[in-house]
Amino acid sequence: MVPFLTSILNTMLPMLGMAKHDTMRVVFCCALQHFSESTLEYLANLDQAPDPTVRKDAFATDIFSAYHILFHQWLQSREAKLRLAVVEALGPMSHLLPSEKLEEQLPKLLPGVLALYKKHAETFHVSKSLGQILEAAVSVGSRTLEVQLDSLLAALHAQICVPVESSSPLVMSNQKEVLRCFTVLACRSPDRLLAFLLPKLDTNNERTRVGTLQVLRHVINSAAAQMEVKKPFILSSMRLPLLDTNSKVKRAVVQVISAMAHHGYLEQPGGEAMIEYIVQQCALPPETERPGPGSEDPTADSVRAVSVSTLYLVSTTVDRMSAVLWPYLLEFLTPLRFTGALTPLCKSLVHLAQKRREAGADALLIQYDDSKGTLPSPYAITTRLLAVCSNPYLGDGRGAASLRLLNVLHRDIHPLLHQRWATTIPLLLDYLDEYTEETLSQKEWEEKLLMFLRDTLTVVPDNTWICQLSLEMCKQLSCYSEAPQEKNFLYKCIGTTLGATSRKEVVRERLQELLETARYQEEAEREGLARCFGICAISHLDDTLAQLEDFVRSDVFRKSIGIFNIFKDRSENEVDKVKSALILCYGHVAAQAPRELVLAKVESDILRNVFQCFHTKVLGIKVETKDPALKLCLVQSVCMASQAICSSAQASSFHFSRKAELVAQMMEFIKAEPPDSLRTPIRKKAMLACTYLVPLEPALEEQARSDMIHGCLHSVMAVVPGPEGEDGDQESLYLDTTHALEDLLTSLLRRNMTPQGLQIMVEHLSPWIKSPRGHERVRALGLSACLLRFFLEHLHISALVPFHNLGLLVGLFSPRCADLWPATRQEAVSCVYSLLYLQLGYEGFSQDYRDDVAEQLLTLKDGLVHPDPAVLLHTCHSIAQIIAKRLPPDQLISLLLTMFESLGDPDKNCSRAATVMINSLLKERGNMLLEKVPEIVSVLRSKLQETREEHILQAAQHSVYLLASQHRAAVVSSLLGSPLPFDSHTCTLWRALAVEPSLTAQVLGLLLERMSRDVPFKESRAFLLSSSPNRVATLLPLAATCALREVVLAPASGPAVLELYPQLFVALLLRVSCTVGVQLPRTLQAKERRSASSALDPRTFEPCSSAVDALQAVLLRGGNEDVVQRMELEGGWELLRTSAGHEEGVTRLASAMAKFAGPRLPLVMKALVCTQSSVYEIQRVTSTAFLAELLNSNVVNDLMLLESLLNNLVARQKDTCAGVRRLVLRGLANIASSSPDKVRAHGPQLLTAMIGGLDDGDDRHSLVALEAMAGLARLLGLVEPQDLRPVLLHVAIRIRPFFDSDKMEFRSASICLFGHLNKACHGDCEDVFLEQVVGGLAPLLLHLQDPQAPVAGACRFALRMCGPNLECEELAAAFQKHLQEGQGLHFGEFLNTTCKHLMHHFPDLLGRLVSTSLFYFKSSWEDVRAAAPMLTGFLVLHVEPEHRPQVDLEQLTAALQLLLQDPAPAVRMKAAETLGRLVKFA
Predict the structure, then answer these.
(1) Which one, of 1340, 1365, 1337, lies nearest residue 1351 by Cα?
(2) Which tens digits make up the pLDDT trace of 1386-1432?
(3) Quick one: 33 exposed, middle or buried, by C-beta within 10 A (0-12, 13-18, 19+)?
């Protein structure tokens, strides 16, 4: 298409001037850009073009025309997009412009393009176009470019100094285009470029310096030929950048040096400074190189990483650098400041050495003769590389790198090492490959390195070489002041090296030098020095001890002899540090020296000097040291000395005379430590020392052993755990201390491997096992598990003996299986597991025996990890079942009693677990506990009194239930023995017996039996002369009654209550009756008074009330809530409790039962009938009252109980108790209410019974007769007339005396019965009875004025009934008119009318009526005395004259005159009125 572009351009060019819209112009710009680029590509590949005749000149005119419009018109647009489109097109177009036109336009074009840098934020397209324009200008040899060079360099340098953002690809691309521009200018004018760039390296501006270094690196690489002669100039200009500390500048400098290395710059003078700079950057600490959160270049490599990579690449890929780097790099191995660069240095040196080795196989790599004396010696290289190997993973694995370099330099170190090192060093490298920094054991690694050193010293049998090596090691010690681990290891290396030499004077000299130059203030230094002496003592024990003793006697210690030397050379603190080091040296000497030699010197030389260093005396007085380091060193030395003695073959026969002293000193240190924190390893080391001292002879006294255990436990258990993220060193220290405590306790236990010895250890741990703090429980259980495992593993039974404290131990540990802390739960199971196997061991089973039941505990551990309490408790239940299967019977009660103690555990989970386990054990093995039931019940009661936790309450209830299900009589007896009144806890236990119906029924039966076993009360006289004895309740029935109520109150007792309902109801009803008015025993009375005064219980404890409450409970539980409510509404319960109202209360109860509990009555009645022969009258009265009231309800017909009830009551007519006889009559009369239709059938029997009651002569108060009258009144209207007629007269005569009884009830009942007798005779009244009617008229008329309304009402009724029998219609009509119920009565008018009719129809009755009236003149009731003269007066008034003789006037007048003296005015007035009416007689 390029060949046709001319015609296209001819067509398009006229349109450029017509394009007015920016979008259209942008399109044209893009087209011109692509046309130009296509043309340039076509021309560049003309040999492959289809038309090779195409020339650039063909497009020059058209392109220039387009250029003119784009540059002079469109580039000035305000639209940024158009300007960028124009400048993108101008770049390729500039190559197609004619040379003269381009030269002509450059003075305008370049400033125009540069001006766009200020107008656009993204300048990639500007830089790209500028580069193309510059290339075009250089290609035509433009001279104008020289004039524009300064402005170009300034603009381009400003662009390269813009910070690069990796997230912006255009910025990165812009940087590349700018560097391309610099390349073009470097090739065109290198001098001008360097003259511009290099001065800018001296500026302190970071961006300027970094940008300049980037340009310099680029031109070194891209314009190498032009820069060749400028190398010294460029190297000298790097002086200030090398001093810059900015990380970005450093990175740029390293990149420049890398470019220099590839182009021979470092071979020039000053190149070594560049190499040293690279090594310095390799030595930077890695952690300081991490980009910060605000870094502009967070993804860039660190300076150190770039430097390390650069050094290795230069060493391995740039051949010309080998002669520069070797052996120059060796100079950087030993200086401390290059320690961080050791790994890359060693790698580079290994590569360089291998290349040189390949070049000359037998020659030495290091030519010390040719060096300037700056290369390190073989001893220095060996010491340095061996020391840094002690921390092999530091610095990107400098250990492996150092070992490889040593292996390469073996001939230069010593000619004899080749074969040995070729074998040993690869093994060390393989060992490092197997581990990581986290998994490598530092101790094992250092031991391997020391073994490597010993092998090396063995291979080189040259004392001079060995002594020189030891001298170099001592020299380098001071170099590791900031690296304590390497220094510590170097001390060990010195000790190893000195141990290999046979020159004793060298050994003494080096040891003396070490003692004099050691930095005693540093702990690591002291430790390293001591290890050095210890290792040296393996071969030179005597020389080592002699050198130490010489030093102890030196001037260093003389200052502490007197108080006046305090302010001499060293402070007291410094002297303590020296002492600490020396004490530690003695300890390591004891630990490392040959065992056959150390026993003879441990007390005489080692410990004597140790304590001489430790104890400070001022003026002969021992002063206690306060330096913890000194204490720790003493403890460590004692520990090591003790361990050395124990590991000796002669330890068993060695008598350690200082043992007690050392133990006391160790315990003093332990007790001085803060119990709640763990800051130093003193207590760990002290306990380890005690561990090694315990088995030595002589044995410790018992008190010392106990104090040791108590002190050590307190020092470890109470340590408060640190926060979750605490440092690992603190955690490691605690674990080590715990292991030391374990070792000490097992060492003590080993001395007494008996159950008693184990019990002693657990007793010491018990307070911590039960601690309210979780971390203390975890620790205590862990120690317990450790001790039990140890005891089990070392158990040796020579004879079958009982494990007598198994129950106590299992009871202590098993509740902890539900501890809040999972670790505690796991350890608790382990303890129980070990205890069960201990029991099997004591039973004679072998150590390797595996019991299927005990092994189930291990499978249950998984369930204890779960935090769900339900899962935990279920697991505890399973554990208890396992324990129950393996526990000997004689241990069961001790286990239970121990678990009962756990009910009050502050950890609620453990308390719940104890309850679950107790109940599981009771269920599985409770049948063996008959004799222990009272003790268990007593413990349960006491535990309930100590706590109010709901779960303990429920568990105690279940425990009692389980016991009762197996020993119900024993449980009931035990609970009945509880103090009265039962407290809430005892009540709770009683209610627990109602869980299961069959058990509840049996318990209720036992309580009923206990209730009836003893008399309900005993009679006693409070005072000697008291008239009547007091009734005092007996305890057993009272307790049984209270217990029965508590059992019945439990909702679950319902089925049992229904089963025993009749017996319960009857027994409690009779219990109520025989406790009415009964007092509490004196002991309980006093207790009740105290309870009332303290207001602890609002309910008063009283025998009858307890029985009533029990009866209520039975009714409620039996489903008779309506009965209870009806009794409550009617006040029946209160009536039952009182002597006066008891009978009425029973009646109301029977009525309620008949109404709401009819189906229950047959069995109740059957049970009640059986009690009617009771020896207690009150019980017979109660039962009779209840039965009598039943006959008042129709339910007896529905249930067909009438006949049996009737027969039963009739049989009781001859009872010796009047109350029973009275209630019998009431019951018989109640038939009239419940079964009126049955009265006729039983009429004779009923009438006979009633008349018998009227004639009852044994009733002093005639209450039986009263009941008989009331009953007859109810029955008369229902019996057959022929049954009634024979008894009418007898009844009338028998009741007549009661008309004037003093008791209202008798008057009312007799008069009412008289009315009913008259009513029964209507229409068939015999003369004999009529005479009784006439005889009763006067009393009835007068009692209309009776002060008691019931009596007056009865008289009204009786007179109305008498009227028809008098056969006088007027009189009957008058009675009906005036005497209706509820109607007012004008007595005078009524009496006047009645007398008028009487005298008219029955004048012959005048005498009898007046005589009867005269009798009432002396009545005790005022109104009746007033009515009597009125009756007499009205009779006299209406009688005919011929009948007046019937009246004795004198007698009448005399009686009236006496009434005139009556104290009542109304009586006197009526008497006077009557006297006035007697005028008619005159």
Answers:
(1) 1340
(2) 888 998 999 999 898 888 888 888 898 989 888 889 999 999 999 99
(3) buried
